[in-house]
Amino acid sequence: MTIELGKLAPDFELLASNGEKVKLSDFKGKNVVLYFYPKDMTPGCTTQACDFRDYHSDFSQLDSVIIGVSPDPIEKHEKFRDKYNLPFLLLFDEDHRVSELYEVWKLKKNFGKEYMGIERSTFVIDKEGRIAKEWRKVKVKGHVGEALQYVKENLA
């Protein structure tokens, strides 16, 4: 399946940081800001999560929910959530099935080593469940504000 703007977002079910299984389709009728990130407690991922936290009420006022996805286990998500007071769900994509579905599981290179991992990406899914906007290879600085602006201008 290929991710395309205007097409229905692939549905999935994953275990969330609240201990419950969550389906994307559970949020139909709300906008969803679905962001994929590499790893809890790392500098870039922490900055991004805290930016989403700081804008959480702004997204909520626009009838939008934020959901983070990474392959980290639930226990690590819970520590990350609690340490930084994250008011949104973090989903456990253990087998990176959902990351592959959204085409964000990529070959990465770091300090001369190659490995598979998540390419930081964000998808805005509208109230009907369609992909409205995508950002790939996200640079953290300013990204959350850009996503909020998109929702305000196009989905409010």
Give a brief description.
By secondary structure, the chain is of the alpha+beta class. It has helices at residues 43-54, 56-61, 74-84, 97-101, 143-154; strands spanning 13-16, 21-23, 31-36, 64-70, 89-92, 105-110, 113-118, 121-125, 131-135.
Describe this structure in words.
The protein is of the alpha+beta class and 156 residues long. It has helices at 43-54, 56-61, 74-84, 97-101, 143-154; strands spanning 13-16, 21-23, 31-36, 64-70, 89-92, 105-110, 113-118, 121-125, 131-135. The protein has one domain: Glutaredoxin, CATH 3.40.30.10. The chain is built from five helices and nine strands; from the N terminus they run βββααβαβαββββα. 29% of the residues lie in helices and 29% in strands. The strands form two sheets. It has a seven-stranded mixed β-sheet. It is globular, with a radius of gyration of 14 Å. The two termini are 28 Å apart. The model has no long low-confidence stretch (mean pLDDT 95).
What's the CATH superfamily, by name?
A: Glutaredoxin
Strand order in space, largest sheet: 2-1-5-4-3-8-9
Q: What proportion strand?
A: 25-35%
Q: How would you characterize the largest beta sheet? A: 7 strands, mixed
Q: How many independent structural domains?
A: 1
Gap from first CA to last CA = 28 Å
Estimated structural class: alpha+beta
The CATH architecture can be named as 3-Layer(aba) Sandwich
Q: What global shape is seen?
A: globular
> Strand tally, please?
9
Mean pLDDT: 95
